[in-house]
Amino acid sequence: MRYDPWNPEFVAHPYDAYAELRATAPVSHFEPTGQWLVARHADVSALLRDRRLGRTYLHVGDHEDFGRPPDPEHLDPFWRLIRAGMLDLEPPVHTRLRRLVSTAFTPRTAEGMRGRVRRIARDLAAGFAERGGGDLLAEVAEPLPVTVIADLLGVPESDRRLLRPWSADICGMFELNPSAEAQHAAVRAAEEFSAYMAELARDRRRHPREDLITALTQVADDGDRLTEDELVGTCVLLLNAGHEATVNMTGNGWWALFRNPGELDRLRADRSLLPTAVEELMRWDTPAQMFERWVLEDITVAGVDIPRGAEVALLFGSANRDEAVFADPDRLDLGRADNPHVTFGAGVHYCLGAPLARIELAESFDALLDAAPKLAPSETPTWKPGYIMRGLSALKVTTG
To answer: pTM, whole model, 2 decimals?
Structure first.
């Protein structure tokens, strides 16, 4: 099996192909997407921190300057939303925006939500166990982060059903060569979500509450404030990261445990392993298989010259299995102490929501281990077709 992000067999198990890339072509050009694949941990980690690359190039040039076609007009609502969020911005604009958002969304904010996360997780797990199981993704993995991020932002309960479909449609645009249907769905979701959040932010300015949207409307640094577009873009980023990655990681993590019953038994017997277990599950089968960067000036990686204007594909899934960094990397070891995985990225774009994601995952696994100590799969799951955000279509289980 070779690197082929549209092949369902590769999506289901990309790790043999990654091993071959690391061994024979750690930096290589992939003609179908025009990207340079980077497979080794050292190179991925270094490039995440290298300011000669960026999530965008529009802060140093335009599309023509970088040999790219202009954005199609019909995608304008999508790009306006996404490029207002910090993930698709570079310093100095990114630095300013991250500083402002970090004032309102701190690690202490995330830790302060632990009790609420625990109650939600335990309620979901208890109900799931009482029903004898079902689709763990739909009934536990999805409702938890949806509820948590909605609580955090201050989205009314009556509107929360809108969040998951918007998030899924917007994230569909981040796959390789999205279809026309996926593009139209992403534009529609971007328009609807932008309008909704802008109105909610205006309401919070008039009627402040104890929620993150209110905090974001009020945050200031020497008189500097978030614009409405920046506030909405930040909320979308929190929604997408808080939903898609955490949902997929929960499913991937449980499926990893079911395929490694010795490690699952180990965790059931020793719950103190949960912190390292969460890190190891994120390393072993990350939902964030690849992140792109644009080359802003000529670089050389592992002896390979990559020109300005090229796009590199940083293979997180490969970096997390690199034998040069991780002892016996294909073995799931929930007690692995030395675990510098790159699932949350690195450098200026390191995931702002990492503390909250870790809390959600730990509390979710803990709650299910308590409520359903005999949890087991009832059928072999299939993988969704997406590669960049990789996850299961469903995870059907019984609770014994």
So the answer is: 0.92
